[in-house]
Design goal:
Glycerol-3-phosphate (1)-acyltransferase, 7 helices, seven-stranded mixed β-sheet, globular, 45% helix, alpha/beta
Length: 231
Amino acid sequence: MVYFRSIAYTTLMIFGFLVLASLALVPFLGHKQRWDIAKYWAEINIWLSKHLCGLTYEIKGLENTPKEKCVIFVKHSSVYEIFILLKYFSPSSWVGKYELMYVPIFRGVFKKFKLIPVKRGRGASEVEKVRAMGKERLNSGNWIIIFPEGTRMPYNKSKRYGLSGSILAKETGSMVLPISHNAGKYWKRRGWLKYPGKICFIVGKPYETSGLELDEINNIAKKWIDLNVKH
């Protein structure tokens, strides 16, 4: 049943994305309307995940969310966390893979939603892009969402964080808000099978970055996020 339910869900997820993303890219729509569509897509997927795959969630620590928009460091291990971030942290600018820009509909999404495309392996030039575009996005009232490990990681695995997020936070005087979860336990990295269970999201306490070195900014977030991946 997991197999067939996962196929049904994945089919509906992709179909829903194609329909709603196309609608969101209609030229005359306003900024708020586009984000309303994005959050609606997230809500649909949360509902479908629950009723088709038995996959639910709980989120703790929302009271820690600062009023002022900041840089968010999030564990990335599946697709499910994207729905939760869209629901609770919109509008937001995400740092994502540049390769998605080769797909026409994703190219439109990146532009209209002010996402930040990054080419892997380009080092300093891409860090500078995140810094410049991130400043503009923060100033326009968007959260900045960064997966600091740079890629989806298997459940309960971690690796060294990149520096672009900590550079952006430090240069803009932004706080860092860490978010941890165990979505990869039920929806595996690069996997399409969704197993029933309850995903636990935990929003940590934001911390100031002034006076900290870049490695310190990363280490504070990494230590807390890794410690709070629920088993």
